[in-house]
DNA sequence: ACGATATGAATGAATG
DNA sequence: CATTCATTCATATCGT
């Protein structure tokens, strides 16, 4: 991403830094600042190789590899993937959180709609089918190539994919959430702010859904 | 702060907006510039309704509703609340914090029209070990008014210094990842994108695991 | 025109 | 995996 440039500076210091400030050396901010090369590789792995939640071993390898381009730790890699995936999902949720739509087995590309993503580098976008969502399990997709290193194994068909569907369907059913309470200023029922906080957790009326405005676009 | 005197009515442009972009049609002016109506509604939600971190569904509704007043996307709403909350807290940290004594009661600058202000306090100074008295005492503003919705999460009352330790080493033995071949795009064999991600259900011991991620190269 | 400030956007790090 | 917090960058806007 980074439509505009910025960062790109890494201290090769072998440690120390951190909170050991006290002097004008205010630049070794505790936080990891990925170099452009590191980001490039990470994205390559993410988009071109479908890496989403690397295992501990993979993380070690990745971080070791990326270390050539700057200081980095395993947790950085871990967080990077976590965040990248989470944000991609979140983005989708804000815009079209209609229905999970498990749908077909990757019949037609994943189409990662770039709605509010400034596009990443826009360089390596060659391979269209990458196991994007969680539901891959694609049996015979000929796309095995990209991830087909020669480490011997895989068919990519056993990708597990854990149980991601926890929030499936909201069923905007009846609008029984009496909003009649009356807000002080306006009726913000459309927002979904519950007028009363229930103490009973098992009812879980979290999803309010009483919108009548609904959105379009 | 907060120049609330602008009547800019959303530039619906699609080509050279105010910015002096000389080439071709530019996407709007990069960043979203909320209209006064949008800001008014957002603040209403924030202050009068206690909305702080709207959920995805709420964000959708809010953005849909605000779209009447100008171009807006879900992320804009998301960021707006994020920022607004963060900045309010940040400013508060400078003024009232740093001394439990007097300190001018947040008179700082937040001169906006607030009619509730549910949150105050919330000091979770993330210090490794800080003795934190359980001073639970719902203080100011008990005016429940009429909107008593459960706004997400507020109350940091309990310390929740939970530290679930579930040791479980990952034993990053020497994997037999023979690197070497050649893949079509890049050679990512070193990553070991093996599909047998199996089901390690120990994916959650954070600290411990994160440490393990780090390797010595 | 600048410089300061307000604020949108992005993202690393954590926590639940 | 979702959510949240803190920081930081970038830019719009205003003041002088």
From TrEMBL, chains A, B:
The keyword DNA-binding applies. One of its GO terms (cellular component) is nucleus. It is found in: Nucleus. One of its GO terms (biological process) is plant organ development. GO terms for molecular function: DNA binding; DNA-binding transcription factor activity. The keyword DNA-binding applies. Residues 27-92 bind DNA. Residues 1-11 have a biased composition (Low complexity). Residues 25-91 form the Homeobox domain. Residues 1-29 are annotated as: Disordered. Keywords: Developmental protein, DNA-binding, Homeobox, Nucleus, Transcription, Transcription regulation. It comes from the Eukaryota. Belongs to the WUS homeobox family. This is Protein WUSCHEL. It comes from Ziziphus jujuba (Chinese jujube). The chain holds residues 1 to 217 of 285 of the full protein.
């Amino acid at each position: 991403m980074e439509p505009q440039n910025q960062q790109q500076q890494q201290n090769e210091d072998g440690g120390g830094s951190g909170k050991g400030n006290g002097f004008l050396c205010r630049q070794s901010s505790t936080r990891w600042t990925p170099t452009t090369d590191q980001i490039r590789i990470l994205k390559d792995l993410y988009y071109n190789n479908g890496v989403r939640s690397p295992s501990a071993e993979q993380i070690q390898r990745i971080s070791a590899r990326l270390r050539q381009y700057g200081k980095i730790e395993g947790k950085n890699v871990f967080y990077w993937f976590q965040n990248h995936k989470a944000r991609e999902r979140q983005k989708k949720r804000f815009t079209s959180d209609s229905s999970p739509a498990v749908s077909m087995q990757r019949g037609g590309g994943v189409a990662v709609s770039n709605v509010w993503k400034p596009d990443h580098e826009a360089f390596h976008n060659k391979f269209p089918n990458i196991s994007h969502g969680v539901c891959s399990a694609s049996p015979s997709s000929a796309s095995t190539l990209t991830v087909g290193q020669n480490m011997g194994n895989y068919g990519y068909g056993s990708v597990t994919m854990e149980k991601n569907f926890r929030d499936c369907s909201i069923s905007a059913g009846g609008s029984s959430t009496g909003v009649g309470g009356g807000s002080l200023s306006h009726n913000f029922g459309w927002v979904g702010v519950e007028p009363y906080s229930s103490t009973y957790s098992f009812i879980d009326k979290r999803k309010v859904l009483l919108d009548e405005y609904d959105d379009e676009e």
